[in-house]
Amino acid sequence: MSVKNGKDYLYLIWKAEQSRKQYIIGQLTKNGQYEFQYCEEVQDAIKEGFQPLLCFPELDKVYKDDRLFTVFASRLPDRKRKDIQMILNKYGLEKYDEYLLLKRSGACLPIDRLEFIDPIFDFDAKTTRIFYMAGVRHYLKCNGENCEQSIQMTRGDEVFLQREPDNEYDSNAVQFVDSAGNVLGYVPRYYSKGVTELLEQEKKMKCHIYHVDKNKNCHECIKVIMEILPNDGN
Questions:
Q1: Which one of 2, 112, 195, 209 has the lowest number of neighbouring Cβ atoms within 10 Å?
Q2: Taking residues 150-167, what's their average pLDDT?
Q3: pLDDT band at residue 173 using 50, 70 and 90 as cut-offs
Q4: Residue 28: inside a domain, yes or no?
Q5: Which range of residues forms the domain containing residue 75?
Q6: How many domains does the chain have?
């Protein structure tokens, strides 16, 4: 759980169509009631084409509701679906919990470029995050074609973190490399600053390939599981 000041947090990410840059455009919190507000990066996202959500038109307002906002709840699978238990099992849930399902699934839809992510606040605790590797298409150089031949990684393969401080787009850029030192992609921008801090502090981290989907045309084809270990390594 990503808790700060008694509130559980989720960040809302928007990916620009042209640059593919990911912006943290808003935050959803839960503490008795739900609150949503835009973040500072929304201004830069607007310059790249993002339009404020119709139900949240004011950029400087904190929206509150006793129930999960309909615009977010509607992104989740219907609890009455016949296969709903299978979906819940996929995300490690025993019962239908809107907020936890939002947190664990990301609620990413093909109709837009929005996704919820679970931020990292406590760098001293054992933490696990599962996410898609960014920038894969650039390094595999497959242009979304012949993915069967391009992707050589399989589930369980270990990958390693390597800083790229001279990256012109993100001074906190962190690359994923394989055991031979080949660059595969990047830690998503919404995690890169925190991961950079962890690397500077020489924190123990382990990363492995969690899932490979060779039908995603290199945009979301390699999923990584990253574990941040406490100083004792346990």
A1: 112
A2: 85
A3: very high
A4: yes
A5: 3-117
A6: 2
